[in-house]
Every structure is written in C-alpha cells, then in structure tokens.
Amino acid sequence: MTDLDICICTFRRPGVADTIRSVLAQEVPEGFALRVIVVDNDDEPTARPLVEDLSRDTPLRLLYIHHPGRNISVARNAALDAGTARYTAFLDDDEVARPGWLMALAQARTGETEVILGPVEPVYPAGSPTWMRDTVVHGTRPVRVGGAIRTGYTCNVLIDRARPEIRALRFDPELGRSGGEDTDYFARMARLGASFAYAPKAVVEEPVVPERLSFSWLAQRRYRMGLTHARVLLRCHAARPWRAVPVAAAKMLACALMAVAFTAHRGRRNAAVLRGFLHAGVVAGLSGAAPPVLYGATPHERQGSTP
C-alpha cells in the first residue's frame, strides 16, 4: 500500500470546506492509502469546527493541525512535518478539485518523476471581461525554460518525497508573507536534480472573486510576481545577480513593442503589458525593492504596503 498525504493550508477562508469536500470525493487510486491534512494558520483555531464536522462524514483520515503564525511557509512546513507518506500533494484553500484530479496525478507518475504539476483553471463569474476569459489570464500552468520545467507551485502538485534530500526540504519562512516561497522551494528541488512533469488532466478550479477582475489588480499581481522572482534569482545567483537586470529590461521593452503591435487586439495587447509589468518587477527587485506583506497581513500592514 502506498501512502499519500493531501495538504491544505488555510487562513480565515470558510470556503476551504468546498476544497476539502472536493478532495474527499475523489476516487482513490488502487493501492493508495489517503490522508487529508488541514493546517490552520490563523491566530485562533477558527477552522477546527468545520474540519471536525467534515471528518464525521467520511471514512478517510482527516487530520486538523492548528499552527498559527500568519506565514504560509510555516503552515506548509507544519504539513510536511506531519506528513509520513511517500507522496505529498498540495492545493490551495480557495480551489476545488475536479473529479478525476487525484487519479490523473497518480497516473502521471513515472519511476523518475518527482514533481507532478496540474493546471489551475479560473472560474469566471457572469459579466467578466471577455479578454480575460479568452486569455485565461487568471490560470496557472508550469513555465518551461528551454523545454523543461525548472520550478513549480503549490496550488496543484504531487511530490514524491522518497529521496531523503527531497524529504528534508522545507519552505523558507522569510518568503512566507510576501510570496515566492513555493518558487524558491521547487527551484531548490530542481537543483537537487528533481525531475518535473505536467498532468494536464489533473485539474483544480479557482473561482475568480470580483476584486480580481480588473486590469489594475492583474498588473499589481504581475509586478509582485516579478519582485518575488527577483528574490529567487538573488538567492540562486548571489554572486552575479546584475546579469539578470539587462535581460529583464530588454524583455520589458520587447513587451512594450508587442503591446503596440497588438493595439487592435485587446487580449494580446493586455497580455503583453502584463508580461511587461512582471519584468518591471524583476528589475525593481534586483535593484533593491522589497515585496509587500500579503499573506496574513494585519490592517496596518496592508495600509503600509503597495497592493
């Protein structure tokens, strides 16, 4: 029997109940023993009643852990510390796994693959801008560099932790409030020689809330992603980070030219501009700008941070 821990970290999000239900409803692959670990990162154990209610209605093992800290790295590390299985899966507390999600991840395993990533499909409310739907701008898929996947994300992933070096890895608490902790974690895993694969049928869905349906929100998000990517670059290439600045600046200029070329095509134009914001964030991050506090931010921290 092969053990599998499915980990969900949550912070003040009642909708995590839908996430848990979608996992509990999955068909368990033959030969697997499943356990669901829910880590509550709130100051108080606010998710405990919800998880305990759900545990009464399922034959599967459902473990609740209260691990406060307002830090997603701390929460994920608590899940890894509690994990005893060879395989560990992560998904976010605002997502719902489609039927067949777990089976698709399990079937994508090979003898050499240690990280399997699935897509995150956005679910848009009625009245959403057409260009967002057409470009699936809120979706998540792995990025390939030279045809290979070199890092990952925790919003839909299965990790084979059989190798001691992989099992020993943890998320960096320094990045746990500003973002980029999963990119850093999987980049370190790649440097250990881990192989990555993509399972396109292992789909989770993420509802897009109204406040995220603006170009301004998307631009700010891409800029923040650039800031956090710069942080990872600084860690990986501490001796020569300056080499990435002209490259990112050139990409930013290329995006501006593409936006001009696609003036008549709203979706392509906006996609190019958003890509430019990402590269602008990389330049700013490599030049010393710090990402704002996002995860678990207090009202005072939100007021003092650029969104």
Architecture overview:
With 307 residues, the protein is an alpha/beta fold. It folds into 2 domains: 2-211, Spore Coat Polysaccharide Biosynthesis Protein SpsA, Chain A (Alpha-Beta Complex); 214-304. The chain contains 11 helices and 12 strands. Strands 3-2-1-4-10-6-11 form a 7-stranded mixed beta sheet, sandwiched between helices. Helix 2 links the parallel strand 2 and strand 3. It is globular and about 55 Å long.
Concise overview:
The protein is an alpha/beta fold. The chain is 40% helix and 19% strand. The radius of gyration is 19 Å and the shape is globular.
The 3D shape can be described as globular
- As for the number of domains, it is 2
Rounded mean pLDDT score? 91
Low-confidence stretches: 303-307
User: In percent terms, what proportion of residues is strand?
Assistant: 15-25%
Order of helices and strands: EHEHEHEEHEEHEEEHHEEHHHH
Please give the share of residues in helix.
40-55%
**Largest sheet composition:** 7 strands, mixed
Q: In total, how many beta strands? A: 12
Enter the CATH topology name of the largest domain: Spore Coat Polysaccharide Biosynthesis Protein SpsA, Chain A
CATH class annotation of the largest domain: Alpha Beta
Could you state the CATH homologous superfamily of the largest domain? Spore Coat Polysaccharide Biosynthesis Protein SpsA, Chain A
Structural class: alpha/beta
In oligomeric terms, what are we looking at? single chain
Helix count equals 11
